[in-house]
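Attaching the record inline, Q. Sequence:
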Amino acid sequence: MNWRPRLVALDIDGTLTGVGSNDVSPAVKAAVTRAADHGTHVVLCTGRSLIGTTPVAPQLPVSLALCSNGAVWWDPDSREITRRTTFEPGPTIKTLQALLPNSVFAVEQTGVGNLSLGEFLPHDLWGETTRATFDELAATPTPRLVMRWLDHTPAELAFAVRELELPGVSWSVDHTEAWLTAVPAGVTKGWALEDLRVSLGIDAADTLAIGDGSNDVEMLRWAARGIAMGQAPATVQAAADEVTATVLEDGAALALDRFFPA
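Structure, as predicted:
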């Protein structure tokens, strides 16, 4: 294939690593390194908070990490936050509490951890977690609010929020856990990547993205070539131009190898 993208956006969980894991396989590391060696800008674009992204970023030659679905931009070289977009989480929490009894919430404290309202499952949250009151969460502008609906399945959550309106935020639900993520209104992976593309002076036709989750749909549609992972839900695969193998089969490496062969 003669075409070679100049900007490659990569999701983490379910794309570069297993969900919740920080382990990038040798094949994926090699493929990403070949892309960077060709002068391509490689960008991590993840729903993870910054503190959840920092164990993965140093393993790969990435020029930027767009965390919290694009609300937090982090430069791995300088280790500095270059952009942070926030919202007031109180109204969203109130709406979700009324709709989803037994739900727990956490607001991101960028680079530190979270303030939580209720108790999450072990290993749910990255960094230090401090229990707090509703008023304390509501008074904390944040780039990312997460909610787990305890004792419910992802399908039950998807059904419960099918007609949900959350003014002032962009939100998505996970397909592997009963988990909802809210970020500032208008913030998506696709929005952040378009801003980055323009700032880098890269043509829209020279972009590629790989992802597997519902929060990747805007990113896959944004890219000139959007590639969904093999285990992605049908709705995510439908938003992509093609589907590669699963994360367990190093699907991201197989996809990148077509454009950056060894």
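The chain has a mean pLDDT of 96. The two ends are 13 Å apart (CA to CA).

More tomorrow.
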